[in-house]
Structures are given as C-alpha cells and as structure tokens.
Write a structure and sequence with these properties.
The chain has 339 residues and is α/β, with parallel strands linked by helices. It folds into two domains: 2-210, DHBP synthase (Alpha-Beta Complex), CATH 3.90.870.10; 235-337, Rossmann fold (3-Layer(aba) Sandwich), CATH 3.40.50.11030. It is 32% helix and 18% strand. An eleven-stranded mixed β-sheet has the order 1-8-2-3-7-4-6-5-9-10-11, with helices on both faces. Helix 1 (9-17) packs across helix 6 (119-128). The mean pLDDT is 94. The protein binds threonylcarbamoyladenylate (TXA) and magnesium ion. Residues 26, 28-29, 31, 55-58, 91, 93, 105, 108, 110-112, 114, 134-136, 173-174, 176, 187, 222-224 line the site of threonylcarbamoyladenylate.
C-alpha cells in the first residue's frame, strides 16, 4: 500500500478517476473511497472490506451544489441542517436521483450524503471531479480507523493507496439523520448531537436501534444497524454504576489474565496497570476521539475481555455510548441495579 501525503493528491485523484480505491482522511474516521458514479468501482469497496452487499455507502461531496444531482428532493429542514453543519460530521439521507448506481445504495431508493470538513478530503473530491462513495476504511466489523497505522493494519494488500491526513479529530463516524419519512429520524449519533439538531429543526425521532438491540424479526431502518460493529478482537462488556461500584467490580475481574478496564482518567489511580483510559469522565469529545484507538491498543496488549465504563447518553456521550454498546453486542452489567 502506498502512503501519499498532501503533496501527492493528484495521484490519489488519478487512481479514483481510473476506477481504483483510495483510503482518504476525514475529520471523523478514514474512508475507503471510490468514484460513487461508477458501479464497478463501488463494488470493489465491498470486496476490500468484506462488507455485506446489502449495507449502503455514504456519498461524499465537496460542494453543496453537487448534492442536487444526487437527490430527487431536498426538504427544507435538511437544508437548515446542512447550512449549519456542512462541511462537517453530518450525513443526511434523502430520496435518491437516477444517476446514483444501485451498488452505492444497496438497492434502496434513498442516498446518504455528507460534506466532510477535512481539507485533504475536500481537495481529493474536487480533484477527482466526482462524488466519492466511502465507508469507514476498516475490515468489516472492526473499529473504524482513526490513524494511518490503523488503515495499514486493516487494508494493506487490499487497496492501492492511503492519503495520510494525520489523526482524525472527531474519532467516531458522522451523525446520520434520515429525511426519508415524515419525521426526521436519527439513525446514528455522532459529533453533531441530537440536542443541536432539535434546537434548529424541532423534534426528531431517535431510532430504537441507537440504544437497544433490535428484535431479529424487525427490519432495521438502516441496514448497518443489524451488524455487529466497531469491535476489538477481545469481548467487550459495558459496566454501569458509580465510580466506587465500577472500581470494586473491575478490580476483582481484572485480576484474571487477559482482563482489562477501559475507564476514565479519574479511575486509573485505583486500577493501575490493568487500566487504559479513554478520556476524562466529562469530556465526551475526548472519549470519542480515543475510543477506537483504545480498542486497537487493548487488542495489541493481549486483552481477551474488556470492562468498559459507560458514559451518559447526553450530547456527544450518546455517540460514545452507541459505539460501545454495539462493540459489546449489547452486553451490559448495571452495578447500580445490583443488591
Ligand atoms: O463519518 C463517516 O460517516 C464515515 C466517513 C468515512 O465519512 N463513513 C462511515 O461509513 O461511517 P459507513 O459505511 O461505515 O457507515 C454508513 C452507515 C451504515 O450504517 C449504513 O447502513 C448507513 O450509513 N446508510 C448508508 N446509506 C443509507 C441509506 N440510504 N439508508 C439507511 N442507512 C444508510
Ligand atoms: Mg463503518
């Protein structure tokens, strides 16, 4: 895999124009990009990632005008959000136009679109002259990559090139909101929070799959919701409760070999060598930025089981909670409810 930098973006654009895949940096996570209007190029993404064919991709644009060709309508509320949050970590789902190949949307009649803010992502899209379909550049099921090293670990030998744009500043994937039904509905929480969205456009629905395990008989609103996601190789268990309860519990659990605590800075002095912090207790942005790289680090430390401390589900804490609970396969021990 060749590692390109900001001086060789032309090379990245040429590869994309010729139907190849290139991993690009974005502010959220690295993306595995191809020309979104070339169905054959898009299908290579599914092979490289090992991604299920029925899971649609997000299309990335560099200019708001490019969205008009991709959708058949653009509701006013969607416009209010894009005006405020684009470029940035917000994806909107709208009815698609005919030029979008079925490979991108996995046969759905809607399309997910986002305008990233990372300057290199924007330059690559502009130089390519086409919108880019790009899922997170991890192997399917693994934590999304937030640095070039993560991309190389997952994708070396599967993709020709990666553009190094440094560490991702957000660290979790974009907020996804759908305008395909009457009331706007949040499919995936991210750095643009539900509260910020409601302040601008009023009440939205939060899809049940954001916090809870879907019954297998229910068809998910977004195909990605049914897959296990973001997981390290180790098993993850979410642990709820206050600091004292968490520490007492985890101290006992972590005396076993291969057991580790994924905790807050404030917990480390009580847990010692078996603890890895993913940020300060009240700093959800820091937790989001560090979460996926902590998962990868714990794997490299030989973790077999990870006891993760759970953030509150407000603001960006909801995004962190959502990634953790999916990584844990909804495995949750709530110590506050124990006798
Ligand atoms: O931050 C991000 O969004 C990153 C960067 C690279 O931009 N991309 C990303 O893509 O996270 P991916 O493919 O890992 O996640 C896209 C999610 C999936 O869960 C997929 O099912 C959902 O968006 N999705 C895409 N198109 C959809 C559609 N038309 N209807 C419902 N869900 C859709
Ligand atoms: Mg992904």
């Amino acid at each position: 895999m060749i590692v390109l930098d900001e001086n060789s973006l032309d090379c990245a654009a040429e590869l994309i124009k010729s139907g190849e895949l290139v991993v690009i940096p974005t502010e959220t996570v690295y993306g595995l990009a191809s020309n979104a209007l070339d169905g054959k190029a898009v299908s290579k993404i599914f092979t490289a990632k090992g991604r299920p064919q029925d899971n649609p991709l997000i299309v990335h644009i560099a200019d708001i005008n490019e969205a008009d060709n991709l959708v058949s309508s653009f509701p006013e509320k969607a416009g209010i959000l894009t005006e405020k949050f684009w470029p940035g970590p917000l994806t909107i789902i709208l009815p698609k136009s005919d030029i979008v190949p079925g490979e991108v949307t996995a046969g759905l009649d809607t399309i997910a679109i986002r305008m990233p803010s990372h300057p290199l992502a924007r330059k690559i899209i502009s130089l390519s002259g086409v919108p880019l379909a790009a899922p997170s550049a991890n192997r399917s099921g693994s934590p999304s990559p937030t640095s070039v090293c993560h991309v190389i670990d997952d994708m070396d030998g599967r993709v020709k090139a990666v553009v190094d744009g440094g560490n991702c500043t957000v660290g979790v994937e974009s907020t996804v909101i759908s305008f395909a039904q009457e009331k706007p509905r949040l499919f995936r929480p991210g750095a643009v929070t539900a509260e910020e969205i409601e302040d601008l456009i009023g009440d939205i629905e939060i899809d049940k799959a954001v916090y809870t395990k879907l019954d297998e008989t229910i068809k998910p609103s977004s195909p990605g919701m049914k897959y296990k996601h973001y997981s390290p190789h180790a098993d993850v268990i979410m642990v709820g409760g206050d600091q004292e309860e968490y520490i007492d519990f985890v101290k006992v659990q972590c005396s076993r070999e291969g057991a580790y605590a994924l905790c807050y800075d404030e917990d480390v002095p009580f847990l010692g060598a078996k603890a890895l912090s993913y940020g300060k207790k009240d700093d959800f942005s820091e937790q989001a930025r560090k979460l996926f790289s902590c998962f990868r680090k714990l794997d490299s430390m030989g973790a077999e089981i990870i006891f993760a401390r759970v953030p509150e589900r407000t603001g960006m804490g909801l995004a962190v909670y959502n990634r953790l609970i999916r990584a844990a396969g909804f495995n949750f021990i709530d110590l506050s409810k124990r006798q």
